[in-house]
Amino acid sequence: MSAAPASSPAPGSPLLLTLLQARTYVALILVFGFFAIMAPNFLSVANSVIVAKHAALTAFLAIGMTFVIITGGIDLSVGSTVGLCSMVSGWLILYGIDLGTVGTMQFNTLEITLIVMCVGVFVGFVNGILITKLNVAPFIATLGTLYIARGAALLSSGGRTFPNLSGNPDYGSASFPAIGAGTFLGLPVQIWMLIAVGLVAAYIAKRTPLGRHIYAVGGNERGAALSGVKVNRVKLFVYMFSGFCAAIVGLIIASQLQAAHPATGETFELNAIAAAVLGGTSLSGGRGKIGGTIVGAFVISILSDGLVMMSVSSFWQTVIKGLVIVAAVVIDQAQSKLQARVALQQEAALGR
């Protein structure tokens, strides 16, 4: 008597697994098709540009968040880092740095960009140190820096907006608005920036030892450490990279609006997490793809903008986003269980 039926793959399991793995693309097709039919002017060129710009902002944060989540962590501070970096850029343009009796140091656009990126990286560095050296749980560490960064942003202006960030030609900062509003070869500058950051992140993830170490830490941190992976260095990198991505978003928003407000970036971390998870990144760590995350960012952006175009209440929009996050996590758990089951069935089949 043969026991083959007990270990045979369930009918349709490989097909279902394929559909679960491709859920991001299925979701993109569904939301795009739905709003193309239901929302007026959704397919217009002007709206497509707006959706792409919004998706780029979410994608930057989600790319950094993907690396963090793959290692088994979380970064709740990215939204506040966006606000802080936006305010720093505004301060540098309007006031420079007061050197006392020496005078005031003013900066050009490139210098402002580099300084703001350093601020974002520093916030990520603080997160990494808290997690790796002081053994603070990622959720608590980044929740703390969320409040610290938001408080610093508020203190920088007393809660007021920094307006008129058009730059000063005398100091070489007149090109600042081009970061968020400029175009190159017909595409917004921020889309080119997203392409560059996305390609670099994908290369790191797929082609470098650092990328392999990031996945190894998330898959089995203890095993990775025993195999020689510098776990703390890997974690420090991913949080610094997440801060770097948040700084880019802060720059783009301040440049686009030509104004900086300390509340900029509120709840952005939720969109970033949603895009990463929807893109196939596992909250348990060890799995995720940059390409899937970027597609997930477009799904979130299309969903948000489509609901606005349909005049759906902002309260319902929040509810729907929450349901999307929950659904993405449930589907991810289902995928993990199905993968494990299929793998066991395949091993059993080979064992016969």
Automatic annotation (TrEMBL):
It is found in: Cell membrane. One of its GO terms (molecular function) is transmembrane transporter activity. It comes from the Bacteria. Keywords: Cell inner membrane, Cell membrane, Membrane, Transmembrane, Transmembrane helix, Transport. Its main location: membrane. CDD domains: TM_PBP1_transp_AraH_like. The chain crosses the membrane at residues 24-43, 55-74, 109-130, 136-155, 176-205, 236-254, 290-308. It holds the Pfam family BPD_transp_2. It is a multi-pass membrane protein. GO terms for cellular component: plasma membrane. This is Monosacharide ABC transporter, permease protein.
